[in-house]
Design brief:
- The chain is of the alpha/beta class.
- It has 3 domains: 3-141, no CATH class; 144-262, Rossmann fold (3-Layer(aba) Sandwich); 282-453 and 484-512 and 554-608, Rossmann fold.
- It is built from 22 helices and 22 strands.
- The strands form 5 sheets. A 9-stranded mixed sheet has the order 10-9-8-11-12-13-18-22-21, with helices on both faces. A 7-stranded mixed sheet has the order 3-4-2-1-5-6-7, with helices on both faces. A two-stranded parallel sheet has the order 14-17.
- α2 (12-34) packs across α5 (112-141), α11 packs across α18 and α13 runs parallel beside α15 (381-401).
- The longest helix is centred in the N-terminal third of the chain and has 30 residues, at 112-141.
- It starts with a helix and ends with a helix.
Length: 627
Amino acid sequence: MNINTLRKVTPRWVIFLIDLIIVFMSIMFSYYLRFNFNIPQDDFESLRFVVPLVLFIRALSFLISKTHIGLVRYTSTRDVQRLLIVQIIGSAIFLLGNLISFQTAEFFLIPTSIIIIEFVMTTFAMTFFRLVVKTIFNEFNHPRKERSNVLIYGTDEVSLITKRTIERDASSKDNVIGYLDSQSDRIGKKIEGLMVYPLQDLDKTIDQQSVKTLIIAGQDLSAVQKQEIVDTCLDKNVKVLTIPDVSHWINGELSFRQIKEIQIEELLERDPIDLDKKRISTQLFNKTILVTGAAGSIGSEIVRQISKYHPKCIVLFDQAESPLYDLELELNERYNFKNYAVIIGDVTNKAHVEAVFHAYKPEHVYHAAAYKHVPMMEMNPAEAVRTNIGGTKTITDIAVANKVKRFVMVSTDKAVNPTNIMGASKRIAEIYTQSLGKTQNDTKFITTRFGNVLGSNGSVIPRFQKQIAKGGPITITHPEVTRYFMTIPEACQLVMEAGAMGNGSEIFIFDMGKSVKIINLAKRMIKLSGLELGTDIQLSFTGLRPGEKLYEELLASKENTQATYHSHIMIAKVREYDFETISHAISQLIETSFKNDEMKIVKAMKTIVPEFISQNSRFEVLDHQEE
């Protein structure tokens, strides 16, 4: 009979019977031990009464607590704790019986020393039995020689829970051999029988202990340290896993299935940002806030961030029906947030936008609605103008008419020295917003400018992940192309901070860190997937797409920056425009967009933004005409 068959046919009463046999043997051995293996006749006679009594009380406690129902092969520290409590309660009953019998008849039912010895022996034997069965079961299912050695980074409670979760899972073929830590007072010591190795000796530990997997469980790692650990592991062909935040554990417990391979997004993260939450809360608490493009990557995260500050109402405005519905469900189910209104609409529809402002009277606006895909806008310049410029003009004009207090526009680094329609359209929208702000006292207009966000719609990372899943090839436009990256929550936190600190008409730029070479990003993702470049998957270079840059910028060459109180946020000093002049030019541009004369549209854009020089585009001919 194999182990699987035995597991299926072993009924619970067998475990119950074994527990009672352990109790019987413990009580008998307790008497022999107490009397040095020479039990007096009177005490031997009392066994006929004591043994049934102890067995009855223990059996009753086992049945009530159901200690025999739990699967022995999954025995955990929690099961041992429950056994201990049940044993203590049973022994307390014996002691209480002794007290009553002594008060009434001046004799003890069971010698106190016997009660103590029986408690220790029964508890130890029942625990030992369960651990032996668990060990045998694990060895039958996953022999030690077939298991892979695992290191866990961290020695805190979360790390210990991770280790116990792995040991508890019967399907796991992992063998935790130790912990990794950077705290010198713990290095060289043992925790739950496992050695704590120094972080600085990671590469040596991997070789000496034949480590196949490292799980990052400790919460004290900086972003730089995490990247260094992962790089070392990838060089050694060691798989790197991570665990979710404690808030995402199922019913407060870590599941083995929640231990996942580390994602590239986690390696591009930076240390957490310190926000002036008091300043943000003062502005947003009990306020009505309109978010355009609320269903998009940035807009939806702005909504999530705002919901933490207890606004009166968030008006979710977007034309994407399904993503807007998904956001509504998320706010209800995950955040338990009810103070919102869902509006399906287009920012270019002036009458509808006016009706929304009239109905909800928002005090703050976060304008994230825009077309963002560079190649798509290069093929559709009229739509870029109508939505990115016309839509922004519509929203800003109506905001002014309704005396909105703050208007925060989400822009892009592609607006700097634009080489494409999308970037130029966002730059013109910036110019209009900033110029309009100079004429206003009631409404403060703030523009925020940042680069690519990880995991956003159209981001390169989801595309690479799909290509890797299909076996490749991974397509890259150019071997030298670089991009700045920021996580969506980080970008939106900075948008909130900049929106709170702005005095009006500023363009805030964010510290995007170091630019990342896309080819290196692809190679890293291949390694994280356990594949080998050139053997398992190939790279393919497709050439720059229309309007695409090799290197992105955060500031134009004639611009400089001014520091703010926040180390991650700076103010861009940009050229100012006369509002009347620029308003007239933009109105004419929007009118031209309805005639669908693409060359005329782009030429007008280049007139407004002289630094707009097309690259890898059919509109380069307009730059040559200027020359």
